[in-house]
TrEMBL record:
<dbReference type="GO" id="GO:0015074">
    <property type="term" value="P:DNA integration"/>
</dbReference>
<dbReference type="InterPro" id="IPR050951">
    <property type="entry name" value="Retrovirus_Pol_polyprotein"/>
</dbReference>
<dbReference type="InterPro" id="IPR041588">
    <property type="entry name" value="Integrase_H2C2"/>
</dbReference>
<dbReference type="GO" id="GO:0003676">
    <property type="term" value="F:nucleic acid binding"/>
</dbReference>
<dbReference type="Pfam" id="PF17921">
    <property type="entry name" value="Integrase_H2C2"/>
</dbReference>
<dbReference type="InterPro" id="IPR036397">
    <property type="entry name" value="RNaseH_sf"/>
</dbReference>
<dbReference type="InterPro" id="IPR001584">
    <property type="entry name" value="Integrase_cat-core"/>
</dbReference>
<feature type="domain" description="Integrase catalytic">
    <location>
        <begin position="108"/>
        <end position="270"/>
    </location>
</feature>
<protein>
    <submittedName>
        <fullName>Transposon Tf2-6 polyprotein</fullName>
    </submittedName>
</protein>
<dbReference type="Pfam" id="PF00665">
    <property type="entry name" value="rve"/>
</dbReference>
<dbReference type="InterPro" id="IPR012337">
    <property type="entry name" value="RNaseH-like_sf"/>
</dbReference>
Length: 331
């Protein structure tokens, strides 16, 4: 252990044991902790191993990688270390893209008020055929951003998509109040319309040739494709076996608009850690306290969604001009 060989860590450990450091410091189990996070020396060889381990989990961006690391580790200048590592990641450089700005002002959808009451749906197609699957049905809860990625075979029909939807979505979350989708022939079919008319779900379709109207699902689609490219690399036919981990990675990653993870917003707790370096430090709250905190949390999250939506619209609109047309105008 470096705490027994690194002179700076040895001196720090001795000061902690003598009580010369503030209470935020602990020395136990052969490690040094700062605010219950494992402390590393800035020049330790373990720093790069830690950053690599967390970043390579899903090749996420700087913010999401930092959110994963800050739960368990600390070293001086750790944020800059993460930024430099992600900036120079070869896998990210090869597989990620720069976002473009289509013309037109943003028209945000109404912010939902309940979890899994308002959802959006879309397809990711043309994937390598694995076990008969070449399509992913992407279903996103518009409030929590929680998503499910459901593999499908091609060609798919309204009946097969409906069966997958009821098996993987309705079984877990119930019947939604609204569904936002593009004008795919499946979503426009008589079978699909009549099915959701009978269950009381309102179908909302994006404007033709304007898929940005369903911007949330489009963003999730790009994120999903990025995850798949990063984790499969040179073996794209393994996308199906990696898909459950991609879904887990997405739902447990930090979202700037929520200021938390979709998992915590849905379940009211932090997502389980695959690598727990502080075993035995967690506590269990009383049920009534947990439910009260959950309600407060949902209310706070909605306010943050509104703030983020307004901020995004202002930034988007500042780079575009409003163009209005009347019937009969040449365009």
């Amino acid at each position: 252990l470096e705490v027994n060989t690194n002179e700076k860590l040895i001196n720090l450990r001795d000061r902690i044991i003598r009580g010369e450091e503030p209470p935020i410091w602990e020395a136990r189990d052969g490690l040094i902790f700062r605010k219950k996070r494992a402390y590393l020396d800035r020049d330790s060889s373990l720093v790069q191993d830690v950053v690599m381990g967390f970043h390579n989990f899903g090749h996420e961006g700087v913010q999401k990688t930092m959110d994963r690391i800050r739960r368990d580790f600390f070293w001086p200048g750790w944020k800059q270390t993460v930024q430099n590592f992600v900036k120079n990641c070869q896998v990210c450089q090869k597989n990620k893209w720069e976002t473009l700005q289509p013309a037109g002002l943003m028209q945000p959808l109404t912010v939902p008020t309940k979890i899994w009451a308002d959802i959006s749906m879309d397809f990711v197609e043309a994937l390598p055929k694995v076990s008969g699957k070449t399509v992913i049905l992407v279903v996103v809860d518009r409030f929590s951003k929680y998503a499910h990625f459901i593999p499908l075979s091609h060609p798919y029909t309204a009946i097969s998509v409906a069966q997958a939807f009821f098996q993987d979505i309705v079984r877990l979350h119930g019947i939604p109040e609204t569904i936002v989708s593009d004008r795919d022939k499946v979503f426009r079919s008589a079978f699909w319309r009549e099915l959701f008319r009978l269950v009381g779900t309102n179908l909302c379709f994006t404007t033709a040739y304007r898929p940005q109207s369903d911007g949330q699902t489009e963003v999730v689609n790009r994120t999903l494709e990025m995850y798949l490219r990063c984790v499969t690399g040179d073996v794209p036919r393994k996308w199906l076996s990696w898909l459950p981990w991609v879904e887990y990675c997405y739902n447990t990653s930090f979202h700037a608009s929520l200021k938390t993870t979709p998992f915590r917003l849905v379940y009211g707790r932090e997502p389980p850690r695959l690598l727990d370096y502080t075993a035995g430090s967690s506590t269990i709250d009383e049920l009534d306290v947990a439910l009260e905190e959950r309600d407060d949390f949902l209310h706070m999250a909605r306010e943050r969604l509104l703030e983020a939506q307004q901020r995004m619209k202002a930034i988007y609109d500042s780079h575009h001009r409003l163009v209005e047309f009347k019937q009969g105008d040449w365009v």
